[in-house]
From TrEMBL, chain B:
Protein name: AP-3 complex subunit delta-1
Predominant cellular place of this UniProt entry's protein: cytoplasm
Residue numbers spanned by region Disordered: 646-696, 724-977
GO annotation, cellular component aspect: AP-3 adaptor complex; axon cytoplasm; endosome membrane; Golgi membrane; presynaptic endosome; terminal bouton
Family: Belongs to the adaptor complexes large subunit family.
Domain AP-3 complex subunit delta: 660-807
Chain intervals with Basic residues compositional bias: 741-759, 841-850
InterPro entries, per the entry: AP3_complex_dsu (IPR017105), AP3D_dom_metazoa (IPR010474), ARM-like (IPR011989), ARM-type_fold (IPR016024), Clathrin/coatomer_adapt-like_N (IPR002553), Mu_AP3 (IPR058898)
Gene3D superfamilies: Leucine-rich Repeat Variant, Longin domain
Membrane topology classification: Peripheral membrane protein
Keywords annotated in UniProt: Acetylation, Coiled coil, Cytoplasm, Golgi apparatus, Membrane, Phosphoprotein, Protein transport, Repeat, Transport
Amino acid composition bias (Acidic residues), ranges on this chain: 777-794
Top-level taxonomic group: Eukaryota
Gene giving rise to this polypeptide: AP3D1
């Protein structure tokens, strides 16, 4: 199962957020932030997997030693080690000054150990089973959080399929396409992954279905039907050359109102 | 109104759309939050408007804001409004928003049920698709229950696009509504062989997901998956299947054997790295499951290791990483083959990618041996030194400890070295694993007796330099090691060379800055030290020195009395008083050392955690039984204590044994000592001279370690582990020389001159003897401790609910809830009953060679046996294709099982399947020639089944023994269907089945499957019947006899669905026919037409019979009663086996077998009005005779006539 699909840019701004497990919005944002910080640290030439921490029970048999559960989030540096202050979300990774207990913005003044535990009870990342698999394309990170039933290399291929599909549907996709057409990106994703399970891996099939749905939408007039299209046409026209007044029926509209939308 | 519309669309012009919103947010970087809250206000306004386009636009923007972290659940109702829009454009927006923000806590979610149901049955595949996609994200248990049946219908949709989505979503439905798993499973299984690869992949996906959680329930699917694996070319599907096999093999090692070959073929042939990797992984899983006694798999291991090496050497970091990951799995079972690649792993330790370094570390864990441990740890220590980032360094630290301590320090040959490593590790800055190091120090010092002297010297040095440890790294917990150091110095103070100095170190004022629990240990061990020093001084008769020590304590202890930590404070004040008392005694020149050291006499032995829990309850001890019988209730409460008291005393007196003589006492003492010696909880005395507290025999078995004096006990100065590497080498060299010398002597004696490569030191691990021995006292665990790991199971696992046995036939109660026809509801007619799948397992007495096996199997649980037959067979033979002809009859068992299961689900359209008839089935049964052959025999008949009585007869031993009271399980049954054709035209095909129920004596339910055979959309279907005096259609209240009953669904092209109608019957002794009409509107592109189809509904007498189990004694009584009239028929020319014959009668005529002896069987059934019908069926050469007895003669003769017809077809 895929637990979540996140797309964000080099600054951690979310471009597509698809959780297949319910999290309150603030936790979602937190997960996005933390995931971002995890992948940001990684060079492009190191591997694309991040394994979830294991709730390890290490028992040192012997006198007086009890089972010592070591709760760790990730095998890798990052989470908890460095406080994720809102300021650092802008893309700079800050290192915690030595001697200072990491403080998490949401969970307050908790030692990161407690943070792990509290977090792991709610988090998709908390389970031992989960790992992050990501790919970095130009300005965007595509991150899939999956459990052990998914093949790592398979998911990497799937990300590739998804991105190539986006590329076909948007014709040379760039970050701006994702920004302005988040809904369309979702519709494309829905043809690839459904409810956390892979629906289709054949790109031609995916594109065919997307196009069929787009045609259907067009035949219905689309969301931005005639009037809205007129507006966008108006918006794109050089304003100073426009007549100051337009008469539509008996309603008189002052054009300057439009300028705010430009 | 028109104006309002225009105005609405004009307003709409100026609404922001999603793009405007995004642009706006980008333009307001500095006051984004303010801008967004403004936008949300606008959106709220837009949502209030009637125009659905405006609403949809608003919801679309909300979805975007949700991504930015804004809660949009307040708009849930508006989202539902947009979901129910008729246009796909809007609907899709609504469902997207819902999928992003709906969850089980959304209260309006229940309002969506009908909307979703409508969308699911929408004629547009994209409406359906979007509803399925949305639902997959927010399905709740309620939605799952209500919609399960609709979704199941969609699994057989004509469009693969819908089918694959419906199949996938079933997993979510199962999770939320586990009861649906069994009814839906047969169809899901069927989808594994769907012609569309997408649907097939979806089904594989779902089953893999299910099987991953509860693999044992899916073992029986292994043959099917095996076939898929060898035939599929879709890598995605292959990966899933191969992963699934990886999960299944641990449960069934034979499966693994079967898999090895095709998997190795794939490994050789595939070019896809992902597939190669998964194959290797599964081969590893197989090898692990086979780990013992498979000689010829070394080739497979070699292949795997070799392929993995290629991965690891690849420049792609991902492959490198995965290669190491897989390698570590092999390591567990085949360490030797991995150890050959040590160079590669060590090389990876230097990789720039940290995750790869960590994987390599994992591998190292398994690669160490006595020979290379020091070398590897040395390398790791250099990594520790240059590691940047505390996490990685901590990881290294724990790995070093893991590696060294694994399997009870198996690889450590020199503990002095290890202690020095630990001490070196304490100098790590900022590690948070101080407690780990501490635990190791304690453990080693306790277990390795020979090392205590050395450990104590090191620990006292550590205590001496405590300021280094404590000051620099107090925050990180490295000071935990002081805890261990203090305890070791105190407990083993006899080994201390300068106890006085250590004592002073422990009493420094700086100590009070340590954490409380460490102070407490300090205080406690100060006294131990004190006791040791006192003893020493008194022995030396140095009273002066003794008093000085006491004085020191009296001066320094108060600093602990002021400690903020309760424990430290309490101990300190207690001990302070004690010392003051000692001081007084000393002043009077009383020797006190003896008494003070008595405080700490005795040795602590290790006891495993959970030891107590694992003590088995002794045989014969019933913990729930009353020790004393509870007092009777009649006694008043006040009396109780008195009574007990009163009772007890005289008994006590009575039982006092007579004075035992001396001999007896001695014997008992001996017995007690023996018992204590074997009792893990009895703290044993040790034979060490210092602790001469007890000197009991029976503890000699604790191994006392001999110190190998070839190693100097102390390395001068602070320990440097490196020195030990050298020393160890020397030691080993010496050892080797000695050994060689011995060998050489021996050899020379044997054969002079025949010099072999003695100079080549093929030193194996076993040759290296450790310098010290570790005490692993077996009694850490109580005897017969139960190796239970029950505590590991998580009771809250959501997947537990899906741990459902799928091979068990479906029971009556198991079906998906259907949206019921209201007639059925008003009349509360029971649902049809024939839900159970007949088991068709058989074994023929011919199979003599298998008999033995089967007997064993019979002993097992029934269910296992059933599952086993298929799988055993599949696993025990070469692939079916290879041996087509001489198959044992047992093979056939598999097929009907599949078959019956496939047709088992009830409340869904059957027409389609029926129509598809043979084709579909042959598709389904491609696996082998035999199946096809078999199938042809029973062409065209589809199976339903009959109810099986709850109580089953014990397994049969042979044919001669009677079968009692059960459905027949002997032989494969041909597929059968109780549905018969009612009417058919170019638009629609109707099939029906009539069912009675014992609860309603005058009603029968007619289940009618309607299948749309045209390309039109059928709606407004209405069924009307011309009532007769005897039989009437139950209509909704208030409608006249001439009104029709509407069919509660519409039929898109190619879809079938089932409706149920209730009829009231007066007399059931004769069969009858009712004329009726189905009217409907067929709508297609050209327009809609009103159509109708006439039919004749045939109520046979059989349809009034209800399968009822009967016991043979009751049956006998019934026959003896003499109230029954008798009749009989005989049919000639029957070639069918008796087994199948009975099954047919059971199935089509609703009888159950009471008893069967050879080719003669008694059967029973009951009519809905309570008539008993008893049959005696006898099979001759070519004929069958049926004698019947019934409380109504007309009914009997009619039933027999009908039966004759059925039999004549055989």
């Amino acid at each position: 199962m895929i637990q979540a699909i996140l797309v964000f840019n080099n600054h951690g701004k979310p471009r597509l957020v698809r959780f297949y497990q319910r999290f309150p919005e603030e936790i979602q944002q937190q997960i996005i932030r933390e995931t971002f910080h995890l992948v940001l640290k990684r060079d492009d030439n190191i591997c694309n997997f991040l394994e979830g921490g294991r709730l390890r029970t290490r028992r040192l048999s012997g006198h007086g030693s009890r089972a010592q559960p070591l709760c760790r989030m990730w095998d890798l540096p990052g989470l908890g080690q460095e406080p994720m202050s809102p300021a650092s979300a802008g893309g700079l990774s800050t290192t915690a000054p030595p001697g200072k207990t990491p403080i998490h913005p949401l969970l307050g003044d908790l030692h990161h150990y407690c943070f792990f535990r509290q977090y792991s009870s709610v988090s998709l990342i908390g389970g031992s089973d989960y790992k992050l698999i990501y790919r970095h394309y130009a300005t965007l990170y595509f991150v899939f959080c999956v459990d052990s039933s998914e093949s790592e290399l398979g998911i990497l291929d799937l990300i590739q399929v998804f991105v190539e599909t986006l590329d076909k549907c948007f014709e040379n996709v760039c970050e701006l396409d994702l920004i302005f057409h988040m809904d369309k990106v979702h519709y494309i994703l829905q043809e690839v992954v459904m409810g956390g399970m892979v629906l289709e891996t054949n790109m031609n099939e995916i594109v065919a279905q997307i196009e069929a749905q787009n045609r259907l939408e067009k035949s219905e007039g689309g969301l931005s039907a005639a009037p809205a299209r007129a507006v966008s046409a108006v918006k794109n026209i050089n304003l100073p050359e426009m007549p100051r007044n337009i008469n539509i029926g008996d309603l008189n509209i002052k054009v300057p109102n439009l300028s705010q939308f430009v | 109104m028109a104006l309002k519309m225009v105005k609405g669309s004009i307003d709409r012009m100026f609404d922001k759309n999603l793009q405007d919103l995004v642009r706006g947010i980008r333009n307001h970087k500095e006051d984004e939050a303010k801008y967004i809250s403004q936008c949300i206000d606008e959106i709220k306004q837009e949502l209030k408007q009637d125009n659905i386009a405006v609403k949809a636009n608003a919801v679309c923007k909300l979805t975007y804001l949700q991504m930015l972290g804004y809660d949009i659940s307040w708009a849930a109702f508006n989202i539902i409004e947009v979901m129910s829009a008729s246009k796909f454009t809007f609907k899709r927006i609504g469902y997207l928003a819902a999928s992003q923000c709906f969850h089980e806590g959304t209260d309006v979610i229940m309002l969506t049920t009908n909307q979703i149901r409508k969308d699911l049955s929408s004629p547009s595949q994209y409406d359906t698709g979007v509803a399925l996609t949305g639902l997959s994200c927010f399905v709740t248990p309620d939605l799952a229950r209500d919609l399960a049946n609709d979704i199941m219908t969609l699994m057989s949709h004509t469009k693969p696009y819908i089918r694959k989505k419906a199949v996938l979503i079933m997993y979510k439905v199962f999770l939320k509504y586990p009861e649906s798993l069994r009814p839906a499973f047969p169809r899901l299984k069927e989808k594994l062989e769907d012609p569309d690869p997408g649907v097939q992949s979806a089904a594989v996906n779902v089953i893999c997901e299910l099987a991953r959680r509860n693999p044992k329930n899916y073992l029986s699917l292994a043959p099917l998956f095996f076939k898929l694996m060898t035939s599929s070319t879709n890598n995605w599907v292959l990966i899933k299947i191969i992963k699934l096999f990886g999960a299944l093999t641990p449960l069934e090692p034979r499966l693994g054997k079967k898999l090895i070959e095709p998997l190795t073929n794939l490994i050789h042939s595939t070019s896809a790295m992902s597939l190669l990797y998964e194959c290797v992984n599964t081969v590893i899983a197989v090898l692990i499951s086979l780990s013992s006694g498979m000689p010829n798999h070394s080739a497979s291991i070699q292949l795997c290791v070799q392929k993995l090496r290629i991965l690891i050497e690849d420049s792609d970091q991902n492959l490198k990483y995965l290669g190491l990951l897989a390698m570590s799995k092999i390591l567990r079972t085949h360490p030797k083959s991995v150890q050959a690649h040590k160079d590669l792993v060590l090389q990876c330790l230097d990789d720039k990618d940290e995750s790869i370094r960590l994987r390599a570390l994992d591998l190292l864990y398994g690669m160490v041996s006595k020979k290379n441990l020091m070398e590897i740890v040395k390398k790791l220590m250099t990594h520790v030194d240059k590691a940047e980032g505390t996490t990685y360094r901590d990881e290294l630290l724990t790995k070093i400890i893991d590696i060294c301590s694994q399997s009870n320090y198996q690889h450590i040959t020199n503990f002095e070295w290890y202690i020095s490593i630990l001490v070196e590790l304490t100098r790590l800055e900022g590690t948070r694993h101080g407690h780990l190091i501490a635990a190791q120090m304690l453990d080693v010092a306790i277990r390795v007796k020979a090392i205590r002297r050395f450990a104590v010297s090191q620990m006292s040095a550590l205590l001496d330099s405590a300021h280094l440890v404590a000051s620099s790294t107090q925050r990180s917990g490295i000071c935990e090691v002081l805890y261990a150091a203090a305890w070791i110095c105190g407990e083993f103070s006899e080994h201390l060379q300068e106890p006085q100095q250590t004592l002073e170190a422990m009493l420094r004022p700086k100590v009070t800055t340590l954490p409380g629990h460490i102070q407490a240990v300090y205080v406690q061990n100060v006294v131990k030290l004190y006791a040791a020093i006192l003893q020493q001084k008194e022995q030396a008769a140095d009273a002066q020195a003794a008093q000085e020590v006491t004085q020191l304590l009296v001066e320094r202890l108060p600093q602990f009395v002021q400690s903020a930590d309760l424990e430290a404070q309490e101990r300190a004040s207690c001990i302070l008083q004690l010392v003051k008392h000692v001081q007084k005694l000393q002043a009077r020149d009383v020797p006190v050392a003896e008494e003070v050291s008595a405080l700490f006499a005795g040795e602590l032995n290790p006891v495993a955690p959970k030891a107590q829990k694992k003590v088995p309850v002794p045989e014969g001890l019933d913990l729930d039984a009353w020790i004393n019988e509870p007092l009777s209730d009649s006694e008043s409460e006040d009396e109780k204590p008195k009574a007990i008291f009163h009772d007890e005393e005289p008994r006590h007196a009575k039982q006092r044994p007579p004075e035992a003589d001396e001999q007896e006492l001695a014997r008992r003492r001996e017995a007690r000592k023996q018992e204590q010696a074997n009792n893990p909880f009895y703290i044993k005395s040790s034979p060490s001279p210092q602790k001469r507290y007890q000197d009991a025999p029976g503890v000699d078995h604790i191994p006392v370690v001999q110190i190998d004096l070839s190693v100097p006990l102390k390395v001068p100065g602070m320990p440097m582990s490196d020195q030990y590497v050298k020393l160890e080498e020397e030691r080993r060299h010496r050892q080797r020389l000695e050994k060689d010398k011995r060998k050489r002597k021996k050899r020379e004696r044997e054969r002079r001159g025949a010099r072999r490569h003695t100079s080549l030191h093929t030193e194996s691990d076993e040759d290296i003897t450790p310098a010290q021995r570790v005490d692993i006292v077996t009694e850490e665990m109580p005897e017969n401790a139960l190796p239970s790991d029950e505590d590991d199971k998580d009771p809250n696992d959501p997947y537990r609910a899906l741990d459902i046995d799928l091979d068990k036939p479906l029971a009556d109660s198991e079906k998906l809830p259907v949206q019921k026809h209201r007639d059925t509801e008003t009349s509360k007619s029971p649902e049809r009953q024939d839900v159970t799948v007949v088991e068709k397992k058989s074994k023929k007495p011919k199979k003599k060679e298998k008999k033995q096996k089967e007997k064993e199997r019979e002993k097992k649980k029934k269910k296992e046996a059933e599952k086993g037959v298929d799988l055993d067979f599949w696993l025990s033979t070469t692939p079916p294709a290879a041996t087509p002809a001489p198959l044992p009859p047992g093979f056939l068992q598999e097929e009907p099982g599949v078959n019956a299961a496939v047709t088992a689900p009830k409340e869904e359209p059957r027409g389609e399947e029926q129509d598809a008839g043979e084709d579909a089935e042959q598709d389904l049964e491609k696996p082998s020639e035999q199946k096809k052959k078999k199938h042809k025999k029973d062409k065209g008949e589809r199976s339903k089944d009959k109810k099986r009585p709850k109580k089953r007869a014990p397994p049969r031993e042979g044919d001669a023994e009677p079968v009692q009271n059960g459905a027949l399980r002997e032989e494969p049954l041909p597929p059968m269907s109780s549905y018969s054709l009612l009417a058919e035209n170019s638009y629609i095909k109707m099939t029906y089945d009539v069912q009675g129920s014992l609860q309603k004596d005058s009603q029968v339910t007619v289940s009618m499957v309607l299948e749309n055979q045209s390309s039109s959309f059928l709606k407004n279907m209405e069924l009307n019947v011309l009532d007769s005096l005897n039989a009437r259609l139950a209509r909704p209240e208030g409608s006249s006899v001439h009104d029709g009953v509407p069919v509660p669904f519409q039929l898109p092209p190619g879809i079938s669905n089932e409706a149920q109608f209730v009829f009231t019957i007066q007399s059931i002794v004769t069969a009858q026919k009712l004329k009726g009409t189905l009217s409907f509107i067929a709508k297609n592109d050209e327009g809609s037409t009103h159509e109708k189809l006439d039919f004749k509904l045939h109520f046979t007498c059989t349809s009034y019979l209800v399968t009822t189990p009967c016991y043979s004694d009751a049956f006998a009584k019934l026959l003896e009663s003499g109230d029954l009239s008798m009749s009989s028929v005989k049919v000639d020319g029957i070639s069918m086996s008796f087994q199948n014959l009975l099954a047919k009668i059971c199935f089509h005529h609703h009888f159950s077998v009471v008893e069967r002896v050879d080719s003669c069987a008694s059967m029973y059934s009951r009519s809905i009005q309570g008539h008993h019908v008893c049959l005696l069926v006898k099979k001759g050469e070519k004929s069958v005779s049926v004698d019947g007895k019934c409380s109504d003669s007309t009914l009997l003769s009619n039933v027999l006539e009908e039966m004759k017809e059925t039999l004549a077809k055989c």
